[in-house]
């Protein structure tokens, strides 16, 4: 056993993957927000969305399979929600 102990080593190993995932998804969503703001000339998504994706990246870590599943499920839920919203407003 080392000076840090087994629990500390686990937190360092798992924590670095979590911080990497948070940095990757948070930075990516922030960059996407900035690019979309420049192109669309309005705010396409708020900083709450960036914070949400950062938290999701922290939770998922650097696991590409989990990230892909998260994106597919969240995208499908968004499509269903907005189609239903359009029908409710009489536009769909």
Task: Walk me through this protein's architecture.
The chain is mainly α and 92 residues long. 80% of the residues lie in helices and 0% in strands. It is built from three helices and no strands. α1 runs antiparallel to α2 (47-60). It is flat and about 55 Å long.
Tally of structural domains = 1
Summed up, the helix count is 3
**Integer-rounded radius of gyration:** 18 Å
> In percent, how helical is the residue content?
over 70%
The biggest beta sheet is recorded as: none
Summarize the topology.
Layout: H1 6-40, H2 47-60, H3 64-88
Provide a quick synopsis of the model.
The protein has 92 residues and is mainly alpha-helical.
Properties at a glance:
mainly alpha; 92 residues
């Amino acid at each position: 056993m080392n000076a840090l102990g087994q629990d500390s080593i686990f937190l360092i190993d798992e924590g670095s993957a979590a911080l990497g995932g948070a940095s990757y998804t948070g930075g990516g969503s922030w960059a996407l927000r900035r690019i979309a703001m420049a192109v669309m000339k309005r705010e396409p998504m708020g900083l709450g969305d960036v914070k949400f994706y950062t938290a999701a990246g922290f939770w998922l870590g650097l696991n590409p399979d989990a990230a892909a599943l998260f994106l597919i499920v969240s995208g499908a839920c968004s499509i269903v929600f907005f189609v239903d919203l359009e029908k409710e407003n009489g536009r769909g």
